[in-house]
Every structure is written in structure tokens, then in C-alpha cells.
Write a structure and sequence with these properties.
This protein has twelve helices and 14 strands. It is α+β, with helices and mostly antiparallel strands and 406 residues long. It folds into two domains: 3-276, L-amino peptidase D-ALA esterase/amidase (4-Layer Sandwich); 284-402, Ubiquitin-like (UB roll), CATH 3.10.20. Helix 2 (58-69) packs across helix 3, helix 6 (205-217) crosses helix 7 (256-276) and helix 8 (295-307) crosses helix 10.
Length: 406
């Protein structure tokens, strides 16, 4: 991911004009800040994408229902340390109370507040602590609060993940910013994490939904850490129109393609950051599948390899065990003939026509020892292609996830 090429710079959700953020320590899990509040100075057009897991946390169901009936939002309240999932009717009441407390603190309508949670499943929220912490948050809202907000939403993440970019849209400066949390329970079935995207561009509701769907498909849906999909996955985007571009952006209008390209670039940078910070990960791998019959087959093959534990553990040991790659391809559901498959690590061909090449083992091993490399697979059946970002699976991943309530 090259910043100089895609124009991305340091910043985050408060880089676009009209957005502020604040944090608070509610004592949900520890003494660090575990509440983040993101606010638009005026109502913003809102779009969201959510987990396809049948088991969905109360805040996911709350946000989905709210965005189905209301197109504008003023604020998003996020807590870490507790997922508020599998908590019954009390969990939904707690989500509604968090929204009501936030609305009261901001003096806005309760339907203008979205709520997200992340952390341990099955534990009731400490609502007395949370309700006590919310009223003081508006006084701390700041354009400089984006970094603190990105830190407050972390769980097993080792570092905050946020990015922004500013560009000229038909002569008007426009910004897109974002923050994301995620390190474990990452599997591409929507977003598999919590991500928050902001822009000061003026965009119609239908266009924003379309742009977000496209960006997510090309970014968050192309990552996997461990093949497990969370109950709380949400990507929320707010567009407040403060940039003043006219007319409002929508497909076919001037600037639309540029806007969607920049939004996708921000989302891809955030998605890559999730994989790079995967629980216990020591390297990032781009799995590129070419030569598939169609895009669906290419995606199946890429996902099967990217999520294979046998493949991922071989990366940890710097073992160019392409046999495991072939085995994963074989159960992917993609149509291909073994005799046509080619596999390469970066530019070194390990397999040609389904059989090993004469590239020395040590040369292939040197590639896999790098902190980032590309695994390219050609199925030899057509012209379709797809890619995934994955990471290795180390002993540290087991240590992190073997403990209760991590």
C-alpha cells in the first residue's frame, strides 16, 4: 500500500470538515478510554453495511433498523470491551439507552444516534458506568479527537488504524476519513470488523449506499485473518455535505468516479491495516488468483487459500509448501484442471502445469520469510481474477484466543 501513489495521508474520521470526536473511560474492561463519540455538526446522510452472521448483536440490529427508516445521523457512540451480543432483550434496551443518553447529552433526536459495540460476547453491559460517562463527552468533542477515538475502539488490536485523504472535486476541496478496529474474528462476509467512514462531500442517499457497497466489496470483503465472522460487524458512513460541492454526487454526475475511487482507496488502506495487525500475525500475504473461468470462481479460489490454516501456518514457518495451496484450491469449488495450475511466490514460479519447477527451495523460502509477499495462482481456465489479503497464523494467535474474555 503506497501512500505516495494513492494520496492517503495521516488523519482520520475528523479530517473532513464538520466532524469531531471525543472519548471517555467508562471502566467497561480497564482504566483506558473505552467509549468513543463521533459527531457531525449537522445531520449527515448515513449508510451502513452489517454482518451476515445469523447471530447479530443488539447494536447491529438497532443500527440496521434505524438506517432502514431514517436517512440522516448526527452521532455514533462506540464502546469497546463488550460486544452486547447474545444478551437478550436487556441488550437491546441497553443499546436504546446508550442512544438516548447520547441524544440527551447532544440535545438531538434519539433517532439521530447510532450505537456500535465490540468486545466479549454474552456479558451484560455495565450501563451504570456507561450512562455516567456519556454526559461529559460533548464538552470534549474536538477536530483533534480522531486518533483518541481510534484507540478507544480497540480490543485485541495492537495499534490504532485511521487514515484520511483530501482531493479536489470539481474544484472543491473534499475529504474522506476513516477509522477501523479489528484483529481477530476477521472473515470476508461483509466487513468483519467495525469501520467508520466520514466525508464532507454532498452525496445523495442512494449514491452513498452504492458507493459504500462498492468500496466494501473491494476492501473489507477482501481480507481474512482467521476465517471467523463476528456478531458485530458494521461499516458506517456519514456524509455531511460541508464541502459545498454542487450538485450532490451521484452516479453519472461529474466527480462521481473520482469520489468512489478515493473512498475505495481509504477503505482498502484500512482493510490492509486490519490484516497487518491480525492477531499474532508476522506477515501479510496478497493472494492473487488469475485465469479463472469467472469472477465467482476466482473469488472462491482466493478465499479458500487465504483462509486455509495449513497454508497460513506454513507461512509462519516460511515453508513454501505449495501442496497445501493446491489442496485448498481443490476444495474451493472453483473449476480447474490440476495440469493447468501455476503458482508463484512473488516473481518466483514454484508450480507450472501442476508440477514443481526447478526453483530452489531456499529461494522460495527467502520470499516467504519477508513481512509481506504475493502468492499468485493461475488456474489456466479463463481470464477472470480476484484477490484477498491474508496473514499467517502463529502460536501467538493461539495464545491470544485460548484465554477467556480476550
Amino acid at each position: 500500500m503506497n501512500s505516495s501513489q494513492d494520496g492517503i495521508f495521516e488523519g482520520g474520521v475528523t479530517t473532513p470538515n464538520g466532524f469531531t470526536a471525543a472519548t471517555a473511560a467508562a471502566g467497561i474492561r480497564s482504566e483506558r478510554d473505552d467509549l468513543a463519540l463521533l459527531v457531525s455538526q449537522e445531520p449527515a446522510v448515513a449508510a451502513g453495511m452489517f454482518t451476515t452472521n445469523r447471530v447479530q448483536a443488539a447494536p447491529v440490529r438497532y443500527c440496521r433498523a434505524l438506517l432502514d427508516r431514517d436517512s440522516t445521523v448526527r452521532a455514533i457512540l462506540i464502546n469497546s470491551g463488550n460486544a452486547n451480543a447474545c444478551t437478550g432483550t436487556a441488550g437491546m434496551r441497553d443499546t436504546q439507552r446508550m442512544a438516548a443518553d447520547t441524544a440527551a447529552a447532544l440535545d438531538c433526536d434519539v433517532n439521530d444516534v447510532l450505537v456500535c459495540s465490540t468486545g466479549t460476547i454474552g456479558v451484560p453491559l455495565p450501563m451504570t458506568k456507561i450512562s455516567a460517562a456519556i454526559p461529559g463527552m460533548p464538552a470534549r468533542l474536538s477536530r483533534d479527537g480522531g486518533d483518541a477515538a481510534a484507540r478507544a475502539i480497540m480490543t485485541t488490536d495492537t495499534r490504532p488504524k485511521h487514515v484520511a485523504m483530501t482531493f479536489s472535486l470539481n474544484g472543491v476541496p473534499v475529504s474522506v476519513g476513516g477509522m477501523v478496529k479489528g484483529a481477530g474474528m476477521i472473515e470476508p462476509c461483509m466487513a468483519t470488523l467495525l469501520a467508520f467512514i466520514t466525508t464532507d462531500a454532498a452525496v445523495t442517499l442512494a449514491a452513498l449506499r452504492s458507493a459504500l457497497r462498492q468500496a466494501v466489496d473491494l476492501s473489507f470483503n477482501r481480507v481474512t485473518v482467521d476465517g471467523d465472522q463476528s456478531t458485530n460487524d458494521s461499516v458506517l458512513m456519514l456524509a455531511n455535505g460541508r464541502a459545498g460541492n454542487t450538485p450532490r454526487l451521484e452516479p453519472g454526475k461529474p466527480g462521481w468516479d473520482l469520489f468512489t475511487d478515493k473512498l475505495t482507496a481509504v477503505c482498502r488502506r484500512l482493510a490492509y491495516a486490519v490484516v497487518a495487525d491480525g492477531e499474532g500475525a508476522t506477515k501479510v500475504v496478497e493472494v492473487k488468483v488469475r485465469g479463472a473461468l469467472d469472477t465467482a470462481d476466482a473469488a472462491k479460489a482466493a478465499r479458500a487459500v487465504a483462509r486455509s490454516l495449513l497454508v497460513k501456518t506454513s507461512w509462519t514457518g516460511a515453508d513454501p509448501n505449495w501442496g497445501r495451496v493446491m489442496a485448498a484450491l481443490g476444495v474451493s469449488g472453483a473449476v480447474f484442471s490440476t495440469e493447468r495450475v501455476a503458482i508463484a511466490y512473488d516473481d518466483l514460479p514454484a508450480v507450472r502445469n501442476g508440477c514443481a519447477t526447478d526453483i530452489p527451495f531456499e529461494s522460495l523460502q527467502q520470499v516467504i520469510e519477508k513481512p509481506a509477499f504475493r502468492l499468485t495462482i493461475n488456474l489456466g481456465e479463463g481470464s477472470a481474477e480476484s484477490m484477498m489479503w491474508s496473514c499467517d497464523c502463529s502460536e501467538e494467535y493461539v495464545r491470544i484466543n485460548a484465554a477467556y474474555m480476550t
